[in-house]
Amino acid sequence: MPELNGILVHPDCRHFRGDIPCRPNKEQGYQCAGCPVYAPTQQRILIIKLGAIGDVIRTTPLLRKLRQEYPAAKITWLTHTPAILPPSAVDEILKLDLATVLHLQAREFELLFNLDKDKEACALHDTIRAVQKFGYTLLPNGIPWPGNTLANHKFLTGVFDELSLQNQKPYVQEIFELCGYEFRGEEYIFDNHDDKGYQWDALPTSRPRIGLNTGCGDRWTTRLWSDTHWIELITQLQQAGYTTVLLGGTAEDERNQRLRLVTGAAYLGTFPLEQFINLMQQMDLVVTQVTMAMHISIALGKPTVLMNNIFNPREFDLYGRGQIVQPDRQCVCFYRGTCKLGTSCMEDLPPAKVFAAVQASLPTSIPQS
Length: 369
What we know:
six-stranded mixed β-sheet, six-stranded parallel β-sheet
């Protein structure tokens, strides 16, 4: 082992940083000589999964498989959103920027998984040294392309709507197969931030609490449900003895204020991401459309009632907790942000149908108010 000025140093340890003291040194005062938590790295693994946040969250089951296969590996994850990843499960979480790119291009890995078709992700796949590479590469003309045959299926469903509609595999299964693994129901790895000490004194104590995420982002607004339908659902839930809690970000704040005034549903406002996650942790079930809150709900292990219209429902795995409900009228606007017929088919999703899914999805062990 190398020594510097007669002092033993373990640069191969998963904890060792090199630029600053490692956590065992900072918190327990350990030095490399005789360190009881010395963890020599046997494999170096890089995951490139940049975004969006929801896709980063639903890629975390892969960490369970990698830890099983390579318990002594140092896992590095490159992303746009480092705060969403669990630091307990990833040794090194890096944000994509020029400094990080220069850093990674000077390193070597045993395994590299590029799970994005973004051109910058594919370029990194091609310029970072690794013994084995999985995922997507870049053709000389700048077009993303499968790096091997394992990536063919996920690539094709992403470039042809017809194949995406025919797809029978959930997203997580596709990611596992792209990496050469069989998906066996591995759950997400996610931080609920209970250790942050957030106080929810304004949250009603009566149970069960039904979280209602009323927005869906601004990219595919064909997913939006009308205020009229939300009001009807909230009324049905309240009459059945459920506590309703409105959820959302700044884009949903105005709508949630309106719904609170009309229905009296609880609404605590908007919060930074970690605090919002912890608010969702307080729910007994979440009703949501396909959006970030859906991924958070699944990651937290919450029963989830997913309202879907424009996406292939087989893409989503609720892990046996909850139901996917769709409009009574068949959607003809696959992955479209505007409705070809003028009025979104979400208006043909009856509140009674969502209410029935809530009743069927709530575990009987949850206390009633």
